[in-house]
Design brief:
Largest sheet: 5 strands, mixed
Shape: globular
CATH architecture of the largest domain: 3-Layer(aba) Sandwich
Bound molecules: coenzyme A
Radius of gyration: 19 Å
CATH class of the largest domain: Alpha Beta
Strand order of the largest sheet: 1-7-6-4-5
Strand content: 15-25%
Number of helices: 9
CATH topology of the largest domain: Peroxisomal Thiolase, Chain A, domain 1
Distance between the termini: 11 Å
Helix content: 25-40%
Order of helices and strands: EEHHEHEHEHEHEEEEHEHHEE
Number of strands: 13
């Protein structure tokens, strides 16, 4: 398969680090030094499905396809206002899709997990065109009193249209199941029968361990997708790394020994938008005209689960 269209959509409210200083014991200097983030887009009066719809419509327009051309829709999402139906069905209705729709909750590597699922459908000859939308509002998961987590996140949606072809050359998805490093608990409706204690908790995270894991896992994944195709790091034109923390991206870049210009970043004004991060990054730099035909792009993402994934794409 190959990527023939991309799109993205962001909430209009921009929260600067200075806005956070007003109610949190933090500083612009701390946030920029430790994370690289200066501002982030945050959901206010929008609904996440509207961002997902906008990103999908832009990707379809970019691909020159109509909703009726899509044979499979995959929506990547961690949290949204609906328990059911899946966010994908809400977005599908808004876009006018008629094809099967499935939702995956694979946290930050969700875009690459979706690529892997789509790839299997293409290989099985079941589809001609697939739409992937990653729509995330992680700012609704953290406590805004917890300075170690809330400063990190931003909301948004990114989308890609895939069609038959040779562009996506190698994908690796993996898991090192360890739910205690990043998790959140949301109690269900009470019943007359439930006797266990269920307490809602905002996002809990062991930042240091996640940081270390992210750098190590990403390098392993990148080397694995390249090795599968007989390539080395030097053959890659651009690395599109999940925008979790600029220091994580820098750690990966330095260990791989790659110059800065091969690591496009947008975390500075986005923060971490979970699975939307990679497709938003792709869409923004594609629209800036960064990629030319034949360029080799490597995606790498890591997050809750712990899940990780990487993909090698020839543009
Ligand atoms: N402003 C000011 N101080 C802060 C702060 C903030 N927003 N957040 C934490 N601190 C403080 C801590 O309380 C701690 O203070 P102490 O030394 O008095 O206890 C100090 O800063 C250092 O905290 P530490 O957690 O060791 O900092 P760090 O350098 O590891 O950076 C993260 C913290 C969260 C930025 C970093 O660990 C990280 O980005 N981890 C990965 C998280 C991630 O990407 N998660 C999603 C993965 S998809």
């Amino acid at each position: 398969m190959r990527i023939i269209g991309t799109g993205s959509a962001l909430p209009k409210k921009v929260v600067e680090n200075a806005d956070l200083e007003r109610f949190l014991d933090t500083s612009d200097e701390w946030i920029v030094t430790r994370t690289g983030i200066r501002s982030r887009h945050v959901i206010s009066d929008e609904r996440l499905e509207d961002l997902g719809r906008d990103a999908a419509q832009k990707a379809l327009a970019d691909a020159g396809l109509a909703p009726g051309d899509i044979d499979l829709f995959i929506c990547s999402n961690v949290v949204n206002e609906y328990m059911t139906p899946g966010l994908g069905c809400i977005i599908a209705a808004a876009v006018g899709l008629q094809c099967p729709s499935m939702d995956i909750n694979c946290a930050c590597p969700g875009f690459i997990y979706a690529l892997d699922i789509a790839d299997s459908y293409f290989r099985a000859g079941k589809v001609r065109n697939v739409l992937v939308v990653c729509a995330e509002e992680p700012t609704r998961m953290t406590s805004w009193q917890d300075r170690a987590t809330c400063v990190l996140f931003g909301d948004g949606a990114g989308a890609a249209v895939l069609t038959e072809g040779e562009g996506v050359r190698s994908i690796r998805i993996s898991a090192r199941p360890d739910p205690e490093k990043i998790w959140q608990f949301r109690p269900l409706e009470p019943t007359p029968f439930v006797t266990k204690t269920e307490v809602g908790l905002p996002l809990q995270m062991n930042g240091r361990e996640v940081f270390r894991f992210a750098v190590t896992a990403s390098i392993e994944d990148i080397q694995a997708v390249l090795a599968k195709e007989g390539l080395t790091v030097g053959d890659v034109d651009y690395f599109l790394i999940h925008q979790a923390n600029l220091r994580i991206v820098e750690g990966i870049r330095q260990r791989l020994g790659v110059p800065e210009e091969k690591f496009p970043c947008n975390i500075q004004d986005h923060g971490n938008s979970s699975s939307a991060s990679c497709p938003i990054l792709l869409d923004e730099y594609k629209r800036k005209g960064l990629f030319k035909k034949g360029d080799k792009l490597v995606f790498s993402a890591f997050g809750a689960g712990l899940l990780t994934a990487a993909a090698l794409v020839e543009w």
